[in-house]
Amino acid sequence: MNTEEIKRVKQRYNIVGNSDGLNRALDVALQVAPTDLSVLIFGESGVGKEIIPRVIHDNSPRKRERYFAINCGSIPEGTIDSELFGHEKGSFTGAIGESEGYFGVANKGTIFLDEVGELPLATQARLLRVLETGEYIRVGGQKIMKTDVRIVAATNVNMQKAISEGRFREDLYYRLNTIPIQMPSLRERGQDIILLFRLFALQMAEKYRIPKITLTDEAKAIMLNYKWPGNVRQLKNITEQMSVLSQNREIDAKTLLQFIPKDEESTQLATISSGGSHSYESEREMVFKILYDMKGSIGDLKREMNSMRKQLDEARNLSGAASYGNQITSYEPGTTALTPVGAQSPSPITNIEEAEAEEIREPETLNLSHLGRQMVEKALERNGGNRKKAAQELGISDRTLYRRIKQYGLDKDKQDE
Protein backbone atom coordinates (compact mmCIF):
# COMPACT_ATOMS: atom_id res chain seq x y z
CA MET A 1 0.00 0.00 0.00
CA ASN A 2 1.46 3.31 -1.10
CA THR A 3 0.61 5.56 1.84
CA GLU A 4 2.05 8.67 0.22
CA GLU A 5 -0.10 8.22 -2.88
CA ILE A 6 -3.19 7.60 -0.75
CA LYS A 7 -2.45 10.73 1.27
CA ARG A 8 -2.15 12.74 -1.96
CA VAL A 9 -5.54 11.43 -3.16
CA LYS A 10 -7.19 12.32 0.15
CA GLN A 11 -5.90 15.88 -0.05
CA ARG A 12 -6.99 16.29 -3.67
CA TYR A 13 -10.53 15.01 -3.15
CA ASN A 14 -10.95 16.28 0.43
CA ILE A 15 -11.33 12.75 1.80
CA VAL A 16 -11.25 12.63 5.61
CA GLY A 17 -10.39 9.46 7.52
CA ASN A 18 -7.64 6.98 8.28
CA SER A 19 -9.57 3.73 8.77
CA ASP A 20 -8.16 0.56 7.26
CA GLY A 21 -11.29 -0.05 5.16
CA LEU A 22 -11.14 3.39 3.57
CA ASN A 23 -7.40 3.17 2.87
CA ARG A 24 -7.83 -0.29 1.33
CA ALA A 25 -10.58 0.95 -1.02
CA LEU A 26 -8.45 3.89 -2.19
CA ASP A 27 -5.42 1.64 -2.66
CA VAL A 28 -7.35 -0.79 -4.90
CA ALA A 29 -8.74 2.12 -6.91
CA LEU A 30 -5.23 3.46 -7.56
CA GLN A 31 -3.94 0.03 -8.57
CA VAL A 32 -6.76 -0.66 -11.04
CA ALA A 33 -6.84 2.87 -12.51
CA PRO A 34 -4.16 2.30 -15.24
CA THR A 35 -6.10 -0.71 -16.61
CA ASP A 36 -9.39 -0.96 -18.49
CA LEU A 37 -10.86 -3.58 -16.18
CA SER A 38 -14.45 -3.15 -15.03
CA VAL A 39 -14.92 -2.21 -11.39
CA LEU A 40 -17.92 -2.83 -9.13
CA ILE A 41 -18.10 -0.79 -5.93
CA PHE A 42 -20.12 -2.19 -3.03
CA GLY A 43 -21.36 -0.21 -0.07
CA GLU A 44 -24.38 1.08 1.77
CA SER A 45 -26.14 4.24 0.73
CA GLY A 46 -24.33 7.36 1.86
CA VAL A 47 -20.80 5.94 2.31
CA GLY A 48 -19.29 8.01 -0.50
CA LYS A 49 -19.02 5.45 -3.30
CA GLU A 50 -19.02 8.23 -5.93
CA ILE A 51 -15.44 9.23 -4.96
CA ILE A 52 -13.90 5.95 -6.15
CA PRO A 53 -14.84 6.17 -9.89
CA ARG A 54 -13.57 9.76 -9.96
CA VAL A 55 -10.24 8.62 -8.50
CA ILE A 56 -10.06 5.79 -11.05
CA HIS A 57 -10.78 8.06 -14.02
CA ASP A 58 -8.40 10.85 -12.98
CA ASN A 59 -5.53 8.40 -12.53
CA SER A 60 -6.14 6.45 -15.76
CA PRO A 61 -4.97 6.98 -19.36
CA ARG A 62 -8.50 8.25 -20.07
CA LYS A 63 -8.23 11.20 -17.67
CA ARG A 64 -8.31 13.74 -20.54
CA GLU A 65 -11.50 12.22 -21.98
CA ARG A 66 -15.05 12.64 -20.79
CA TYR A 67 -16.39 11.29 -17.51
CA PHE A 68 -20.12 10.73 -16.96
CA ALA A 69 -21.78 9.77 -13.67
CA ILE A 70 -25.24 8.26 -14.27
CA ASN A 71 -27.74 7.36 -11.56
CA CYS A 72 -29.54 4.35 -13.03
CA GLY A 73 -32.28 4.49 -10.42
CA SER A 74 -33.33 8.02 -11.37
CA ILE A 75 -33.98 7.34 -15.08
CA PRO A 76 -37.48 6.02 -15.98
CA GLU A 77 -37.52 2.45 -17.29
CA GLY A 78 -39.17 3.55 -20.53
CA THR A 79 -36.37 5.96 -21.48
CA ILE A 80 -33.24 4.44 -19.94
CA ASP A 81 -32.23 2.55 -23.12
CA SER A 82 -32.50 5.76 -25.11
CA GLU A 83 -30.49 7.67 -22.48
CA LEU A 84 -27.68 5.12 -22.41
CA PHE A 85 -27.51 3.87 -26.00
CA GLY A 86 -29.15 6.67 -27.99
CA HIS A 87 -32.03 6.50 -30.48
CA GLU A 88 -32.87 7.08 -34.11
CA LYS A 89 -35.15 9.83 -35.38
CA GLY A 90 -38.81 8.83 -35.13
CA SER A 91 -38.10 5.69 -33.10
CA PHE A 92 -40.69 6.76 -30.54
CA THR A 93 -42.99 9.68 -29.81
CA GLY A 94 -40.87 12.74 -29.16
CA ALA A 95 -37.77 11.43 -30.94
CA ILE A 96 -37.50 14.45 -33.25
CA GLY A 97 -33.83 13.79 -33.95
CA GLU A 98 -31.01 11.34 -33.44
CA SER A 99 -29.28 10.88 -30.09
CA GLU A 100 -25.89 9.29 -29.47
CA GLY A 101 -26.63 8.39 -25.87
CA TYR A 102 -24.05 8.31 -23.08
CA PHE A 103 -22.14 5.41 -24.61
CA GLY A 104 -21.74 7.32 -27.84
CA VAL A 105 -20.77 10.64 -26.27
CA ALA A 106 -18.40 9.06 -23.71
CA ASN A 107 -16.35 7.17 -26.31
CA LYS A 108 -12.74 6.84 -25.08
CA GLY A 109 -13.85 8.07 -21.64
CA THR A 110 -15.37 6.63 -18.47
CA ILE A 111 -18.97 6.00 -17.45
CA PHE A 112 -19.92 5.58 -13.80
CA LEU A 113 -23.18 3.62 -13.41
CA ASP A 114 -24.45 4.32 -9.90
CA GLU A 115 -27.23 2.07 -8.52
CA VAL A 116 -26.58 -0.42 -11.34
CA GLY A 117 -28.76 -2.95 -9.52
CA GLU A 118 -31.82 -0.89 -10.52
CA LEU A 119 -31.33 -1.50 -14.27
CA PRO A 120 -34.21 -3.32 -16.04
CA LEU A 121 -33.37 -6.81 -17.34
CA ALA A 122 -33.61 -5.72 -20.98
CA THR A 123 -31.11 -2.93 -20.37
CA GLN A 124 -28.85 -5.37 -18.54
CA ALA A 125 -28.66 -7.50 -21.71
CA ARG A 126 -27.62 -4.44 -23.77
CA LEU A 127 -25.01 -3.48 -21.18
CA LEU A 128 -23.56 -6.99 -21.18
CA ARG A 129 -23.05 -6.79 -24.95
CA VAL A 130 -21.21 -3.47 -24.60
CA LEU A 131 -18.94 -4.93 -21.94
CA GLU A 132 -18.12 -8.02 -23.99
CA THR A 133 -17.84 -6.61 -27.52
CA GLY A 134 -18.04 -2.82 -27.27
CA GLU A 135 -21.08 -2.96 -29.58
CA TYR A 136 -24.62 -1.66 -29.17
CA ILE A 137 -27.62 -0.70 -31.28
CA ARG A 138 -29.54 2.52 -30.84
CA VAL A 139 -33.24 2.37 -29.96
CA GLY A 140 -35.14 2.08 -33.24
CA GLY A 141 -31.96 1.50 -35.23
CA GLN A 142 -30.37 -1.43 -37.03
CA LYS A 143 -26.78 -0.28 -37.45
CA ILE A 144 -24.27 -1.71 -34.99
CA MET A 145 -22.40 1.06 -33.18
CA LYS A 146 -18.97 0.73 -31.60
CA THR A 147 -17.72 2.40 -28.43
CA ASP A 148 -14.61 2.24 -26.25
CA VAL A 149 -15.78 3.08 -22.75
CA ARG A 150 -14.41 2.23 -19.31
CA ILE A 151 -17.29 1.20 -17.03
CA VAL A 152 -17.25 1.60 -13.28
CA ALA A 153 -20.44 0.57 -11.47
CA ALA A 154 -21.69 0.86 -7.90
CA THR A 155 -24.52 -0.73 -5.96
CA ASN A 156 -26.01 -0.68 -2.50
CA VAL A 157 -28.12 -3.81 -3.04
CA ASN A 158 -27.48 -7.42 -2.09
CA MET A 159 -26.46 -8.65 -5.54
CA GLN A 160 -26.43 -12.35 -4.68
CA LYS A 161 -30.03 -12.12 -3.48
CA ALA A 162 -31.01 -10.14 -6.58
CA ILE A 163 -29.46 -12.84 -8.79
CA SER A 164 -31.19 -15.68 -6.94
CA GLU A 165 -34.54 -13.87 -7.34
CA GLY A 166 -33.98 -13.35 -11.06
CA ARG A 167 -33.78 -9.57 -10.89
CA PHE A 168 -30.16 -9.25 -11.99
CA ARG A 169 -28.27 -11.23 -14.62
CA GLU A 170 -25.56 -13.44 -13.17
CA ASP A 171 -23.35 -13.14 -16.28
CA LEU A 172 -23.51 -9.33 -16.11
CA TYR A 173 -22.66 -9.40 -12.42
CA TYR A 174 -19.46 -11.36 -13.00
CA ARG A 175 -18.58 -9.16 -15.97
CA LEU A 176 -18.94 -6.00 -13.90
CA ASN A 177 -17.32 -7.50 -10.83
CA THR A 178 -13.88 -8.02 -12.38
CA ILE A 179 -12.38 -5.85 -9.64
CA PRO A 180 -14.60 -5.48 -6.54
CA ILE A 181 -14.10 -2.55 -4.16
CA GLN A 182 -15.83 -2.51 -0.78
CA MET A 183 -16.53 0.89 0.75
CA PRO A 184 -16.84 0.59 4.55
CA SER A 185 -19.89 1.88 6.38
CA LEU A 186 -19.42 4.81 8.75
CA ARG A 187 -19.93 2.66 11.86
CA GLU A 188 -16.92 0.58 10.76
CA ARG A 189 -14.59 3.57 10.50
CA GLY A 190 -14.10 4.29 14.21
CA GLN A 191 -12.44 7.66 14.89
CA ASP A 192 -13.19 8.79 11.33
CA ILE A 193 -16.64 9.72 12.69
CA ILE A 194 -15.15 12.42 14.92
CA LEU A 195 -12.86 13.68 12.14
CA LEU A 196 -15.77 13.98 9.74
CA PHE A 197 -17.84 15.79 12.36
CA ARG A 198 -15.07 18.36 12.80
CA LEU A 199 -14.85 18.88 9.04
CA PHE A 200 -18.59 19.43 8.63
CA ALA A 201 -18.76 21.71 11.69
CA LEU A 202 -15.87 23.81 10.33
CA GLN A 203 -17.51 24.06 6.90
CA MET A 204 -20.77 25.31 8.46
CA ALA A 205 -18.93 27.84 10.61
CA GLU A 206 -17.04 29.26 7.64
CA LYS A 207 -20.04 29.28 5.32
CA TYR A 208 -22.46 31.05 7.66
CA ARG A 209 -19.93 32.91 9.85
CA ILE A 210 -21.07 31.29 13.08
CA PRO A 211 -19.06 29.81 15.98
CA LYS A 212 -17.97 26.23 15.36
CA ILE A 213 -19.67 23.54 17.45
CA THR A 214 -17.66 20.96 19.43
CA LEU A 215 -18.45 17.72 21.26
CA THR A 216 -18.06 16.74 24.90
CA ASP A 217 -16.46 13.37 25.72
CA GLU A 218 -19.91 11.86 26.44
CA ALA A 219 -21.22 13.10 23.11
CA LYS A 220 -18.20 11.63 21.31
CA ALA A 221 -18.90 8.24 22.91
CA ILE A 222 -22.50 8.36 21.66
CA MET A 223 -21.26 9.27 18.18
CA LEU A 224 -18.88 6.32 18.12
CA ASN A 225 -21.49 3.82 19.33
CA TYR A 226 -24.35 4.94 17.09
CA LYS A 227 -25.16 2.71 14.08
CA TRP A 228 -25.33 5.53 11.49
CA PRO A 229 -27.71 3.82 9.03
CA GLY A 230 -27.45 6.89 6.78
CA ASN A 231 -23.64 6.82 6.99
CA VAL A 232 -21.64 9.95 6.06
CA ARG A 233 -24.68 11.68 4.58
CA GLN A 234 -26.59 11.31 7.85
CA LEU A 235 -23.61 12.53 9.92
CA LYS A 236 -23.33 15.64 7.75
CA ASN A 237 -27.04 16.39 8.07
CA ILE A 238 -27.02 16.06 11.86
CA THR A 239 -23.90 18.24 12.15
CA GLU A 240 -25.52 20.94 10.02
CA GLN A 241 -28.72 20.79 12.09
CA MET A 242 -26.84 21.19 15.37
CA SER A 243 -24.71 24.00 13.94
CA VAL A 244 -27.84 26.03 13.13
CA LEU A 245 -30.33 25.04 15.84
CA SER A 246 -28.26 24.42 18.97
CA GLN A 247 -27.95 27.39 21.34
CA ASN A 248 -24.83 25.97 22.97
CA ARG A 249 -21.68 25.65 20.87
CA GLU A 250 -20.49 22.72 22.97
CA ILE A 251 -22.72 19.74 22.22
CA ASP A 252 -23.26 17.49 25.22
CA ALA A 253 -24.90 14.05 25.31
CA LYS A 254 -28.37 15.40 26.10
CA THR A 255 -28.28 17.84 23.19
CA LEU A 256 -26.89 15.25 20.77
CA LEU A 257 -29.63 12.74 21.59
CA GLN A 258 -32.22 15.33 20.57
CA PHE A 259 -30.86 15.27 17.01
CA ILE A 260 -30.09 11.53 16.61
CA PRO A 261 -33.16 9.46 15.61
CA LYS A 262 -34.06 6.72 18.07
CA ASP A 263 -35.93 4.44 15.65
CA GLU A 264 -33.16 3.91 13.08
CA GLU A 265 -32.35 0.20 13.15
CA SER A 266 -31.77 -0.88 9.56
CA THR A 267 -28.06 -1.21 8.77
CA GLN A 268 -28.23 -3.96 6.18
CA LEU A 269 -27.67 -3.61 2.46
CA ALA A 270 -30.82 -2.55 0.67
CA THR A 271 -32.68 -4.99 -1.58
CA ILE A 272 -33.92 -4.25 -5.11
CA SER A 273 -37.57 -3.33 -5.25
CA SER A 274 -39.67 -5.31 -7.72
CA GLY A 275 -40.43 -3.39 -10.90
CA GLY A 276 -38.66 -0.27 -9.64
CA SER A 277 -40.39 -0.13 -6.28
CA HIS A 278 -43.30 -2.51 -6.25
CA SER A 279 -43.82 -6.03 -4.98
CA TYR A 280 -46.75 -8.27 -5.83
CA GLU A 281 -46.49 -10.59 -2.81
CA SER A 282 -49.50 -9.12 -0.95
CA GLU A 283 -51.64 -9.07 -4.10
CA ARG A 284 -50.70 -12.67 -4.86
CA GLU A 285 -51.71 -13.76 -1.36
CA MET A 286 -55.06 -11.98 -1.73
CA VAL A 287 -55.76 -13.72 -5.04
CA PHE A 288 -54.84 -17.11 -3.57
CA LYS A 289 -57.19 -16.49 -0.62
CA ILE A 290 -60.06 -15.53 -2.92
CA LEU A 291 -59.47 -18.61 -5.09
CA TYR A 292 -59.29 -20.83 -2.00
CA ASP A 293 -62.60 -19.48 -0.70
CA MET A 294 -64.19 -19.92 -4.12
CA LYS A 295 -62.86 -23.47 -4.28
CA GLY A 296 -64.60 -24.26 -0.98
CA SER A 297 -67.94 -22.84 -2.17
CA ILE A 298 -67.71 -24.64 -5.50
CA GLY A 299 -66.78 -27.85 -3.69
CA ASP A 300 -69.94 -27.59 -1.55
CA LEU A 301 -72.01 -27.03 -4.66
CA LYS A 302 -70.50 -30.05 -6.41
CA ARG A 303 -71.17 -32.27 -3.38
CA GLU A 304 -74.76 -31.03 -3.35
CA MET A 305 -75.24 -31.85 -7.02
CA ASN A 306 -73.62 -35.29 -6.62
CA SER A 307 -75.89 -36.02 -3.68
CA MET A 308 -78.94 -35.11 -5.76
CA ARG A 309 -77.84 -37.36 -8.59
CA LYS A 310 -77.15 -40.18 -6.15
CA GLN A 311 -80.61 -39.90 -4.60
CA LEU A 312 -82.27 -39.92 -8.00
CA ASP A 313 -80.34 -43.03 -9.00
CA GLU A 314 -81.34 -44.80 -5.79
CA ALA A 315 -84.93 -43.74 -6.20
CA ARG A 316 -84.97 -45.03 -9.78
CA ASN A 317 -83.55 -48.38 -8.72
CA LEU A 318 -85.98 -48.72 -5.82
CA SER A 319 -89.10 -47.73 -7.74
CA GLY A 320 -88.28 -49.78 -10.81
CA ALA A 321 -90.27 -47.29 -12.83
CA ALA A 322 -89.31 -47.77 -16.42
CA SER A 323 -90.96 -44.52 -17.39
CA TYR A 324 -88.57 -42.65 -15.14
CA GLY A 325 -85.66 -43.01 -17.53
CA ASN A 326 -87.86 -42.02 -20.47
CA GLN A 327 -89.29 -38.96 -18.77
CA ILE A 328 -86.10 -37.54 -17.29
CA THR A 329 -83.39 -36.80 -19.78
CA SER A 330 -80.81 -34.94 -17.77
CA TYR A 331 -80.10 -32.86 -14.75
CA GLU A 332 -77.86 -29.86 -15.33
CA PRO A 333 -75.97 -28.25 -12.45
CA GLY A 334 -77.30 -24.75 -11.83
CA THR A 335 -80.98 -25.69 -12.41
CA THR A 336 -83.65 -26.17 -9.77
CA ALA A 337 -85.64 -29.02 -11.32
CA LEU A 338 -85.37 -32.07 -13.50
CA THR A 339 -85.94 -31.26 -17.17
CA PRO A 340 -88.40 -33.57 -18.99
CA VAL A 341 -87.91 -34.23 -22.68
CA GLY A 342 -89.31 -31.34 -24.75
CA ALA A 343 -89.73 -29.09 -21.73
CA GLN A 344 -88.14 -25.64 -21.52
CA SER A 345 -85.18 -25.46 -19.21
CA PRO A 346 -85.69 -23.26 -16.14
CA SER A 347 -83.46 -20.26 -15.49
CA PRO A 348 -80.00 -21.11 -14.15
CA ILE A 349 -79.04 -20.33 -10.58
CA THR A 350 -76.48 -17.56 -10.42
CA ASN A 351 -75.92 -17.43 -6.69
CA ILE A 352 -73.94 -20.22 -5.03
CA GLU A 353 -75.80 -19.86 -1.72
CA GLU A 354 -79.12 -20.24 -3.53
CA ALA A 355 -77.79 -23.36 -5.22
CA GLU A 356 -76.87 -24.87 -1.86
CA ALA A 357 -80.33 -24.24 -0.45
CA GLU A 358 -82.21 -25.57 -3.46
CA GLU A 359 -83.84 -28.98 -3.40
CA ILE A 360 -84.79 -31.31 -6.21
CA ARG A 361 -88.46 -30.97 -7.03
CA GLU A 362 -89.33 -34.52 -8.06
CA PRO A 363 -92.29 -35.34 -10.29
CA GLU A 364 -95.23 -36.24 -8.08
CA THR A 365 -95.95 -39.38 -10.08
CA LEU A 366 -92.76 -40.99 -8.81
CA ASN A 367 -93.56 -40.37 -5.13
CA LEU A 368 -89.90 -39.53 -4.47
CA SER A 369 -90.80 -37.44 -1.41
CA HIS A 370 -91.63 -40.62 0.46
CA LEU A 371 -88.31 -42.18 -0.49
CA GLY A 372 -86.42 -39.02 0.45
CA ARG A 373 -88.11 -38.94 3.84
CA GLN A 374 -87.09 -42.55 4.48
CA MET A 375 -83.46 -41.81 3.58
CA VAL A 376 -83.32 -38.81 5.92
CA GLU A 377 -85.01 -40.74 8.75
CA LYS A 378 -82.59 -43.65 8.42
CA ALA A 379 -79.56 -41.36 8.30
CA LEU A 380 -80.71 -39.56 11.45
CA GLU A 381 -81.43 -42.86 13.15
CA ARG A 382 -78.00 -44.30 12.29
CA ASN A 383 -76.29 -41.18 13.68
CA GLY A 384 -78.33 -40.94 16.86
CA GLY A 385 -80.16 -37.82 15.71
CA ASN A 386 -76.91 -35.92 15.06
CA ARG A 387 -77.83 -33.72 12.11
CA LYS A 388 -74.25 -32.77 11.25
CA LYS A 389 -73.15 -36.40 10.90
CA ALA A 390 -76.34 -37.30 9.05
CA ALA A 391 -75.76 -34.50 6.56
CA GLN A 392 -72.19 -35.71 5.99
CA GLU A 393 -73.43 -39.25 5.38
CA LEU A 394 -76.01 -38.04 2.88
CA GLY A 395 -73.41 -35.79 1.21
CA ILE A 396 -75.45 -32.60 1.70
CA SER A 397 -75.00 -29.42 3.71
CA ASP A 398 -76.44 -28.93 7.21
CA ARG A 399 -78.75 -26.24 5.87
CA THR A 400 -80.19 -28.52 3.18
CA LEU A 401 -80.77 -31.30 5.71
CA TYR A 402 -82.55 -28.86 8.01
CA ARG A 403 -84.84 -27.76 5.15
CA ARG A 404 -85.70 -31.37 4.31
CA ILE A 405 -86.43 -32.17 7.96
CA LYS A 406 -88.91 -29.29 7.98
CA GLN A 407 -90.30 -30.29 4.57
CA TYR A 408 -90.91 -33.89 5.64
CA GLY A 409 -92.27 -32.83 9.03
CA LEU A 410 -89.64 -34.82 10.90
CA ASP A 411 -89.17 -32.01 13.40
CA LYS A 412 -92.89 -32.20 14.30
CA ASP A 413 -92.65 -35.98 14.74
CA LYS A 414 -89.83 -35.41 17.21
CA GLN A 415 -91.97 -32.94 19.19
CA ASP A 416 -94.92 -35.35 19.24
CA GLU A 417 -92.71 -38.00 20.81
| N-to-C SSE string, H for helix and E for strand | HHEHEHHEHEEEHHEHEHHEHHHEEHHHHH
Q: Extract low-pLDDT stretches.
A: 266-281, 321-366
Oligomer: single chain
How many β-strand stretches? Answer: 11
What's the story with the biggest beta sheet?
5 strands, parallel
Q: Beta fraction of the residues?
A: 5-15%
Tell me what you see in this structure.
With 417 residues, the chain is an alpha/beta fold. 50% of the residues lie in helices and 9% in strands. The chain is built from 19 helices and eleven strands. The longest helix has 39 residues, at 281-319. The chain starts with a helix and ends with a helix.
Tags for this model:
alpha/beta, 5-stranded parallel beta sheet, two-stranded antiparallel sheet
What's the SSE blueprint?
Layout: H1 3-13, H2 20-32, E1 39-42, H3 51-58, E2 67-71, H4 80-85, H5 101-105, E3 110-114, H6 121-133, E4 135-137, E5 144-146, E6 150-155, H7 159-164, H8 170-176, E7 179-182, H9 192-208, E8 214-215, H10 217-225, H11 231-245, E9 250-251, H12 253-259, H13 281-319, H14 322-327, E10 328-330, E11 339-340, H15 352-357, H16 368-382, H17 387-394, H18 398-408, H19 410-416
Parallel strand pairs: 1-6, 1-7, 2-3, 3-6, 8-9
Antiparallel strand pairs: 4-5, 10-11
Helix pairs in contact: 1-2, 2-3, 6-8, 9-11, 10-12, 16-17, 17-18
